[in-house]
Design brief:
This protein has a single domain, classed as MetI-like fold. The chain is about 75% helix and about 0% strand. Helix 3 packs parallel to helix 12 and helix 7 packs antiparallel against helix 8. It is globular. About 30% of the residues are buried.
Length: about 270
């Protein structure tokens, strides 16, 4: 009984922190269903009728840009996973001159603030004639994200059972077979983690698209959100509805990508 009483303040504190965390999302959702007059007279709670037309108006304005962002963020994830997994595998499996130096140089890239390389990065993309293109929004974030991903994957690969890889060597499996059929399937947890991190980074990247794009052809949704407009009755409800719509792909990714992560953690918790 004493332990239960002691736990009450802890649970109370956690409940308070949870409420403070979720409250802004509650206000975002509630406000997106209101017109201006409803927001003035009933700011904190739901006001009827609920104006779902805010969502339809917002979706029509940002739908093309959501497609752009999905394409850009997905390409960044694919590129980062491929580059970092190959680099990490080479660091773990092979010995060659300068290996440690190369790894230290990759780690040093994690210490460089993104704003520090913004101008040189812009000049490079400009020289390559990739401004206002999908490539210009994909390759620089991909290169920047590959550094941390390589570090994470190398650490994970080093924890894989060496006896399993040695057995594959003895059976005559080549490096490509070991990498694709053993290492990658066992590394789904870290791949899911890298995918989530880089998809979120690509989706929420505001400064680089602002610098590297102009016009609507390849504009990501994060820039389009500031241009959402409704009539005077709708007010900011349309813009808030656009914020919610643009966050739905991130929620779907999190639901899908965490399944292999949780599966990997639970399978590794029980050893035969």
């Amino acid at each position: 009984m004493n332990k239960k009483l002691i736990a009450v303040p802890h649970f109370g504190t956690l409940a308070l922190l949870l409420a403070l965390t979720l409250f802004p999302f509650y206000m975002l959702l509630v406000s997106s269903l209101k017109y201006t007059e409803q927001a003035i007279h009933n700011f904190w709670g739901l006001a009827f009728p609920l104006h779902l037309d805010n969502y339809s108006v917002a979706f029509k304005q940002i739908a093309p840009f959501i497609g752009n962002t999905v394409l850009i963020s997905s390409a960044i994830v694919v590129g980062v996973v491929i580059i970092s997994s190959l680099a990490a595998y080479s660091f773990v499996r092979f010995d060659y001159p300068g290996k440690q130096l190369f790894f230290v140089l990759i780690l040093s890239l994690m210490m460089i603030p993104g704003y520090l390389i913004l101008i040189p990065q812009f000049l490079l993309v400009q020289k390559l004639d990739m401004l206002n293109t999908y490539q210009g929004q994909i390759f620089p974030p991909m290169a920047f994200g590959a550094a941390m991903a390589t570090f994470l994957m190398k650490t994970f690969f080093e924890g894989l059972p060496k006896s399993l890889l040695e057995a594959a060597d003895m059976e005559g499996a080549g490096e490509r077979q070991i990498f694709l059929r053993i290492v990658i399937p066992l590394s789904l947890p870290i791949i899911a983690t890298v995918a989530i991190i880089n998809f979120l980074a690509g989706w929420n990247n505001y400064i680089w698209p602002l610098v590297a794009t102009n016009g609507d052809a390849v504009k990501p949704v994060i820039l389009a959100l500031s241009t959402i407009t409704g009539n005077m009755d709708q007010g900011v409800g349309v813009k808030l509805a656009g914020y919610i719509i643009s966050s739905i792909p991130l929620l779907l990714l999190f639901i899908v990508a965490t399944k292999p992560f949780i599966s990997g953690v639970t399978s590794g918790a029980v050893k035969g």
